[in-house]
Amino acid sequence: MRHIYVLLLTALLFAGCENAAESNSNPANQKRYDLRGTVVSVDKLQKRAKIDHEDIPGFMDRMTMDFPIHENWVWDDLVPGAQIRAELVVDSSAKDPYWLEKISIVANSAPNQPPVEEKQPEQIGKLVPDISLTNQEGKKFTFKDYRGKALAITFIYRECPLPEFCIKMSSQFADMANQLGSDPEAKDKIRLLSISFDPERDTPEKLNQYGLGYLGKDPKDDLTIWNLAVGTDKEVRAVADFFGLKYETDAADKTQINHSLVTAVIAPDGKVTRVFSGGRWTPDDVLAELKKAVN
User: Fold this and answer.
1) What are the tens digits of pLDDT across the range 144-198?
2) CATH of 133-294, one of 3.80.10.10, 1.10.10.10, 3.10.20.30, 3.40.30.10
3) Distance of alpha carbon 51 from alpha carbon 96, whole angstroms
4) What gap in Å lies between CA 130 and CA 186, rounded to an integer?
5) CA distance 249 to 208
6) Region of residue 102 (phi > 0: left; psi between -120 and 50: alpha; otherwise: beta)
7) CATH code linked to domain 10-107
8) Beta 190-196 vs 226-230: how paired, if at all?
9) Torsion sign (Cα): 138, 143, 147, 152
10) What angle do CA 276, 279, 281 make, to 5 degrees?
11) Can you say whether residue 285 is alpha, beta or left, with left for phi > 0 and alpha for psi between -120 and 50 degrees?
């Protein structure tokens, strides 16, 4: 039987030292959402927790992702299996563009119950649907065109303002492209693909300029290794749905798109071998998975 307990947090929530990310945040820029979920894992050193959260009405569907947590008191009580309620704060002007606060642990894992294990993504071992898209040169292609090469896919939109979201994904894909461009053994065996989920504004021409801008002044790649692509809303949503990416236009600001982060590795036979949820992967992490897939 689960041991249920409620923590009275009022005093704790407003005590202690002010975190730098919070102090840089302007309350006028903040959007707040109620969050409920189960702790999957914790990283006390980085002050982050992976939460399997329920739907957040008006913002995000159910998914598992990492959240920064600024409150120091939680780390003695926040353990895998704990059920929590919290307030998700979103503020693109802050150091952390989103974080959890006002956390309450409403149920602990049952005695002797093993920690919650992160589920293996359902896409692993499946063939990627052969959906048609258009690359930065205006050429149509399908995922079958990448057969024989290992492929990493991520999702972005060009006007995303969040440093930990599309900006980080594109910077890291550009980094990988330049590394691969200097690797004679890998550059012909590995490809990278960023798919835009903003077809109204992200034309092939604009994606071409966007990609070249991220590659830098002395690029090792000319967008041969790293491609950027867009499609119709139906095509892009079909790919996004397969990988579990969620996105929708912000109801309060139609120029912004609220979205999750997904990066996946596909083997030369077209089957998914690894899915990274969130943005806490490094170029070395993904390159290692790509080279493993090649071999």
Assistant:
1) 999 999 999 999 999 998 888 899 999 999 999 999 999 999 999 999 999 999 9
2) 3.40.30.10
3) 17
4) 24
5) 23
6) left
7) 2.40.50.320
8) parallel
9) positive
10) 65
11) alpha
Q: Are 90 and 33 in contact (CB under 8 A)?
A: yes
Under 8 Å between Cβ of 229 and 203: no
d(CA 66, CA 248): 20
Q: Copy the structure tokens of residue 266.
A: 């596909």
Here the tokens at position 50 are 């992976």
Where in the chain are the domains? 10-107, 133-294
DSSP letter for each residue of 32-64: EEEEEEEEEEEETTTTEEEEEE--BTTTB-SEE
Handedness of CA 223, 262, 186, 139 (dihedral sign): negative
Residues in the chain: 295
CA distance 68 to 72: 11
Calculate ∠ Cα 73-282-35, nearest 5°: 40
Q: Which amino acid is at 143?
A: F
CA neighbor of 176 nearest in space, from 153, 208, 160, 197 = 153
- Residue 236: count of CB within 10 angstroms of its CB: 23
Each residue of 86-131: pLDDT tens digit? 899 988 778 888 999 888 877 665 445 555 455 678 899 999 999 9
In the chain, what are the helix, strand and coil shares in percent, each to the nearest 5? 25, 30, 45
Q: 158, 176, 195, 129: which is closest to 287 by C-alpha? A: 176
**Per-residue tokens: 106:** 């409403």
Six token digits for residue 141 = 């292609």
Please list the residues that pair with 66 across neighbouring strands.
50
Q: What is the spatial distance between Cα 91 and Cα 19, in angstroms, rounded to a whole number?
A: 15
101 and 94 Cβ atoms separated by less than 8 Å: no
Nearest alpha-carbon partner for 160 in 281, 258, 32 = 258
